[in-house]
Amino acid sequence: MFEATVEPTPDAAREAADQLLELVLSTVDPTVPVPATPPWSITDVFGHVAMEPVRYRDLALGRGTWPKRAADLPEFNADQVAALPTRDLRELAGILQAGLEDFLATIEALGPDAQMMFDGDQRIRVDRALGTLIGELLVHGHDIARARGRRWRIDREHVPMVLTGMHQIMPGWVDPAGASGHTATYHVRLRRGPMQIYRFRDGALTIGSSGRPDVRISADPATWLLLVYGRASPTRAALTGRVIATGRRPWLAPTLPTRFLPP
User: Fold this and answer.
1) Is residue 190 part of a domain?
2) Torsion of CA 202, 184, 161, 231, to 10 degrees
3) What is the CATH number of the domain that holds 53?
4) In 3D, which of 208, 223, 209 has the Cα closest to residue 257?
5) 177 exposure class (CB count in 10 Å sphere: 0-12, 13-18, 19+)
6) Contact call for residues 20 and 141 (beta carbons, < 8 A)
């Protein structure tokens, strides 16, 4: 079973960035804590996101730093926030906008065959790393919106783009404890979108390879993205019908996000 990969686009990245900027720049008190990312405030979360396009561009050009192990990412991000060049929201917004345009220009200049090192010491395609960056904008925007009691939109068409980026790194993000000995094949159908196939064999993950599914999952795209990032409750998603599991072993569906380290 093959379905075309949905490539991330500059328009999607700019749209996600614009939505985040509108939310953040209307914030009255940027010291408000963000429950999804303790102990960070709105300034801390936005500062982290603002610096990511610059970091991605540097990695694409063979410069910069990255955590060698997936488990080291929280400490790496904490160091990044501690070293922010400014905590002024408007200055951080300028850094985000300029950094995003620089990264998009770098993607265009390097072409689809270019690769870069990335978190977890993995080599990935530069153009598809844009999907991971869109995920940062969408999910951390959701975090800030929740902290402010505001609504947040995740476009269903953007979710497969994020997954395209994440699929490059997910095999290295498998939690050795959570996936140890696990063998199962998951077919995840994003509603009005493509199928994602995750196949575990004794704890090792391959993505996209076919096979008889143990679990078939039908998921609302936005809900699925938040589940993957640990921002939504599997129980609530099931009870509200946003995620429905069938197949030979449907009880495995809520455990799929737990097979990975936090992204």
Assistant:
1) yes
2) -90
3) 1.20.120.450
4) 223
5) exposed
6) yes
Tell me which residue of 162, 187, 183 sits closest to 259, measured CA to CA. 183
Q: Please, are residues 44 and 34 in contact by the beta-carbon 8 Å criterion? A: yes
Q: Are residues 157 and 207 in the same domain?
A: no
Tens digits of per-residue pLDDT, 33-60?
999 999 999 999 999 999 999 999 999 9
Distance in angstroms (rounded) separating the CA atoms of residues 244 and 250: 9
- Do 247 and 150 lie in one domain? The reply is no
Q: What percent of the chain has pLDDT above 90?
A: 92
The verdict on 183 and 90 lying in the same domain is no
The answer to whether residues 178 and 159 belong to one domain is no
Q: CA nearest 262: which of 74, 12, 53? A: 74
| Residue 111 phi, psi (nearest 5) | 85, 175
Token pair, residue 31, equals 């010291």
Q: Which of 132, 167, 202 is the last residue of a domain?
A: 167
SS3 call for 199: strand
Is 108 inside any structural domain? yes
